[in-house]
Amino acid sequence: MTQDAMERFEELVRRGQELLERYEAHGDEAARDEAIACYRKADEELQLPDELHVALAWSLLTPLLTRGEARGDADDLMAVLRYGARCLEAIDEDPSRAAVLCHIGIAHLLLAEHRPERKGEELQQAVESLRQALAGAGDDDLMRGMAASRLAVAFACWVLHDLAVSDKAARLKVADRMDEAVGMLTEAERDMRPDDGFRVMVRHCKACTQAIKFLLHGGSDDEYEAAKAACQEVLEIAEEGTDPANTAHIFLAFLLFFESLPGELRQRFIRSDWNSIADLMQERPEHLIAKLEHSPGEIGRAMLDHLNQVTGTAMVDPKRELLSSVREMATMLTGPEAVALELSGGSFLSVQGADLIESLERALTELPDGHETRAVLLSAMGLKVIIKSYPAQRLERLRELLLEKIERPCADAADAAAERFLLRAVDGLRVLHDPDAGTLNSVITQIMQAADTLPPGHLVRLHMLWALSTLLQGYHNRRGGIEYLEAAQRYADMAREETRGAGEDAEKLQSVMDALCVDLSLGRFSKEIDTGQIDTIIERQEQVLSQGSFGTEQQRDRIREHLAELQEHRALYSNFNNPFAAGGGHSETESLTGVPQILSGLRLRNLALFDAGMAAMEKKYKDVDMSGHWMDWRMIQGSFRYMRYRITGDRTDLDVAIHDLEQLRRDLEENPYGAHSRATLLLTLAHAYHERGDRNLGDQDKAIEIATAELHERAVDVLLQSNVGHAFESARDAAGEATLFARWCVAAERLEKAVEMLERGRAMVLHAATADTGIPSLLRRAGHFELAEEWENTRAGTDAMPGGAGSPVGSRETPLLGDLRYRVVHALAGSEAEQRLFTPPGVRQIGEALRACGAAALVYLVPQDESGSGFAVIVEPDGRVRKLPLFWLSTTPGSPVADFAAALRDRQQAEPDTPEWERAHRRWRSALAELCEWAWPAAMERIFTAIGADPAQRPRLVLVPAGALSLVPWHAARRKVADGRWRYACQDAVLSYAASARQFLEAHSRPPRDLRSEAVLVRTPGGLLWASKEVRDLHARHYPDGLLLGDRRDRPATPDDVLAHLPRRGSLGASLLHLGCHAKAAERPVDSYLQLARGRRLAMADILEQARDRPRDGAGGLVVLAACASDLTGRDHDEALTLATAFLAAGATGVVGTRWPVDDLPTALFMTMFHHCLNAGYPDPAAALRAAQLWMLDPRRSLPVATDMAEEMDRVDLTAVEHWAAFTYQGR
Asked: Any idea where the CHAT domain is (predicted)?
């Protein structure tokens, strides 16, 4: 240990001791916090001998424990366990070990309240540690008193916890342990110091244990008096309004009620279940009432006085109120009416856990068919069961009962419908939790069949519709398919529509469900939030809340909570790039609870607010039976723990977050949660490991490993989507992740892994479209023959449906394809088939393809971000991978790329032929020139040097630009040469592009066809004068045996005509498809389209949907898009979704497209030369494209073919970058 380290150690320890003394003298919590920070800094930052680390751990135990107890901070308590374990490894002396064990035991005792899922284990560990501490305390009276009192409380809490989770038979066995707990508490209090503030907790536990034992098991008069005396002893020292005082008042009220009963009757009353109580009341209500009426009036008043201490309620005549309640009990707890009244009482979500399932069983068996409330009760409780999302094992007995019930004749249609609904609701939950249990489509169909036996607006039918909506939302939350969410919305809308005019009960049901389903319209949050949509939902919920008829105060509170949460979401996502920015959102943070507090604390970097929100959430989920939602809460909790570290920067917070997230990761492997949920967890965990970056723990490799798994789950989630639009929305969730993870790999010198990351996270929609074609064979290879047949039949059925895949999602006529996809992915999980489906090509495969096509390299271009400069990853034909730093490769605001993107957007949005458009065009042209001049030194010059490019050899490069770099025409990167002229990259090399190496390899794997064999040219009359003539000339000159579509005005080409000439089942499609038309690059790339004659649109989504059914390994043709902006996407660049890449996914071997709109005449001239070169010595489309570009750049050019356009050439400057650089090639 160096002298500097020792001096620093002594300084930190001395400072910590001074601060703790200040805290002990003045109660200064800030001093305690700073002292803890000093000790931790010494422990974590200095290389010390082991004994000093142990000394620091010893010094941290007490301040961490006191702070953890005072603030309810589970992280501090977990730290006590870690430091305590360190001390135990080094300390042999009994008194010292006893002190450490006492701290550990108390920490476990306190953690029991913060970790409800482990409450029993925490209490058991507390008891074991405190027993060891007591045994080792020796003659230290202070230590013995502390250990004994905490041990007694821990043991009592353990016993009461076991009692709470036991069934009726097991509870009888707990009675002896309760007596032991009372004895330990009595003895502990006798040995405590008079001023020990823990005495109130000892008395509180003793009162609870004695009162609960008496109320559950009955007992003698002595036991009754002992329980009452224990409660009175609590009130002697507990402050009114605290939990111990409130609990004592409530127990005393019940005990006073039983005091008015004779011993025999009291024991019968206590020991009975509710059915026995009903019998008791039916047989002897007069006796009971008479007993109360002749009892001293003070008993009833005393009982109500105690309750008033808790509730604050005052009653005019307490004795009359008490007698009235007893009479009501006597008359109601008899017969079916009693069952109906009991089961229908309370708020919508008040019945919980086993009580709800038990209530359902009672309603089925005890309410006769035709009872006026039976059907409504059954369907309402069925809806509650779905809201609770109970796992299947808790519903087996109920399902057996339902199977028996539906076999019998049932005269009442509503009863029969409710029973059938209940059975299918149970089946729906079984499938949700176990994908092998059946199909969701079958469940939905049968529930709707039951619903259709009832008229619209019937309350039982409304329960079913809301249940379907809730069930499908659960499927979305678990499995991630956006299709489920749309179907859930559809059934919610159906329910709302039928509620109009259906009566007060239906309106109240809608109000409750609107509160429960407030997040339904939001869908799942992606990285880009529509805050306007949040505003709309907030407004609607405020309207619901303003309705005077809205349900109970509890339901109104739920609406208020959701509103606060939405307002905080709104504030957080308004500053999404800087979530810690102040301002906006909910101004009165003191009024927030739970998630709104957490979000507000995160936004404001307010740790106290954040922790208060976490405590409120943990309390909420501890107190509520979470049933099937328990895992959902744990996922939220894990993410929030990582967020806490983002506020504090404390390594301990990060350690706890990683521990909890890893545990959750293991648990998720045992649960059928979908890819979207797993990806969300893995993303947080990968970031946590990367930020911790502990080399000794291998954090860097773990971060990369988990990031790989995260991208795999993203790809699975994209594949799970039932249509291209949904796939795109899913892929957007992964925006930027691939380049970020690749950057991690480059920093770790794992370059092959960097290539894998870039491939896994790019062009996922395109891969999903092409992967569909191979799924049946993969299923058969894995032995899932029935699934393969179902896949093929369902796809064929969807194609044959009116509207095809575009039919209303969730309709009874349309199967939920997402359910089938989920079952397919579930069946392939972990198999070799799954690896073939999702694993991208490796660098050796990429190298083989490069050799086969004579390319010198495939180059990924990754832009600079806040964590580092830009770089290229170069894959060479021999499979070697190199990294090339590119320090100027930026797309940030103010960069040439950002300026070009903004100018292009302004040009596209301006009205053509207006002064505004002229200004936008000039700005765009200037930005394009600047971009081309920047592109040479920023990337192409260094890339050419790195690969040793010899212009005389015209090397071929395949470029894969990431992010906004895909907007750059890299082939037009230019520099001035000796004679003062511009020289462009395309003059020195053949440059083509690829959405990903995977798409490049897939295109390369398709055998090319003779372009003239089945050529199809599409002409669009009107608007494009020269393009229209050009298509006719091309047909006549090069493809006279081909098909010319749209040549007649009375028979224009339609989207179906074009789709018919793309590869599909039973056809390879056209050998060459040339489209002379306009293109529209939409804000959402998946909404882009080609505009054919008469305004008809050929949508990208339709092209990609057809790609899903094309021949897997068929030969492909060339697609030429002589259309403006057909290879352009203004956003979501990593998906590389353009019309050009869509045609490549649809089975083409190559596609020519354009990066921006080009005027009609230059386009026609370029296409004339491209097809001339293609048919006169340049069969490689990439080489033919380059030859056409060089012709445009040649000032001495001449047209080698006869055409009317020859006379027009001098009207435009064909050497201008805007006229030739727009054209790009992708493919083999």
From this structure: 931-1227
Return the pLDDT at 833: 79
pLDDT band at 257 (very low <50, low <70, confident <90, very high): low
Cβ-contact 564, 592 below 8 angstroms? yes
Amino acid letter for position 786: E
DSSP 1166: H
- Write down the H helix ranges in 547-604: 553-574, 595-604
Q: Say whether both 985 and 1021 belong to one domain.
A: no
DSSP-based three-state secondary structure for 754: helix
Q: Which residues contact 1066 (CB under 8 A, 6 or more apart)?
A: none
E strand segments, 955-994: 956-961, 974-976, 982-984, 990-993
pLDDT at 514: 66
- Interval 961-978 mean pLDDT: 94
CA atoms within 13 A on the CB side of 173: 7
pLDDT at 343: 44
pLDDT of 1228 higher than 90: no
pLDDT of residue 882: 96
- Paired strand residues for 974: 984
Cα(187)–Cα(210) distance, rounded to whole angstroms? 15
- Render pLDDT for 31-88 as a digit per residue (tens, 0 to 9): 999 999 999 999 988 888 888 988 999 999 999 999 998 888 889 999 999 999 999 9
CB atoms near residue 880 (< 10 Å)? 14
What region does 1070 belong to: left with phi over 0, alpha with psi -120 to 50, or beta?
beta
Per-residue pLDDT tens over the stretch 6-34: 888 999 999 999 999 998 888 889 999 99
H-type alpha helices, 27-140: 29-45, 50-71, 74-90, 94-114, 119-136
Please indicate, yes or no, if residue 1070 is contained in any of the structural domains.
yes
Q: Does residue 912 register a pLDDT over 90?
A: no
Whether 174 is in a domain gets the answer no
pLDDT in tens, 691-731: 999 999 999 999 999 999 999 888 888 888 877 777 777 77
Phi-psi region of 266 (alpha: psi -120 to 50; beta: other; left: phi over 0): alpha
Over residues 872-895, the mean pLDDT reads 95
Instruction: Report the distance separating Cα 1170 and Cα 1176, nearest Å.
Output: 10
Same structural domain, 1044 and 1183? yes
User: In 10 A of CB 747, how many CB atoms?
Assistant: 15
What single-letter amino acid sits at 201? M
The phi-psi region of residue 980 (left if phi > 0; otherwise alpha if psi is between -120 and 50; otherwise beta) is: left
Q: What is the mean pLDDT of residues 483-502?
A: 86
Q: Is 410 exposed, middle or buried (0-12, 13-18, 19+ CB in 10 A)?
A: middle
Which helix (H) or strand (E) covers residue 1154, if one does?
A: strand 1150-1154
For the residues of 284-319, what is the DSSP string, one character each?
Answer: SHHHHHHHHHTS-HHHHHHHHHHHHHHH----S-HH
| Domain identity same for 934 and 1054 | no
371 Cβ contact list (under 8 Å, min separation 6): 336, 340
Q: What is the pLDDT of residues 1085-1100, one digit of tens each?
A: 888 898 888 888 999 8
How many secondary structure helices (H) and strands (E) does the chain include? 53, 16
Task: Based on the fold, state whether residues 1077 and 1181 are members of the same structural domain.
Answer: yes
User: Which residues make Cβ contacts (< 8 Å) with residue 420, sequence separation at least 6?
Assistant: 406, 446, 447, 449, 450
Buried b (16+ CB within 10 A) or exposed e, 577-608: eebeeeeebbeebeebbbbbbbbbbbbbebee
Is there a single domain that holds both residue 426 and residue 505?
yes
Residue range of the domain that includes 1023: 1008-1227
**Joined tokens for residue 495:** 């329910």
Beta carbons of 816 and 483 less than 8 angstroms apart: yes
CA separation for the pair 160, 154 (Å, rounded):
10
C-alpha gyration radius of the chain: 37
- Above pLDDT 90, what percent of the chain? 32
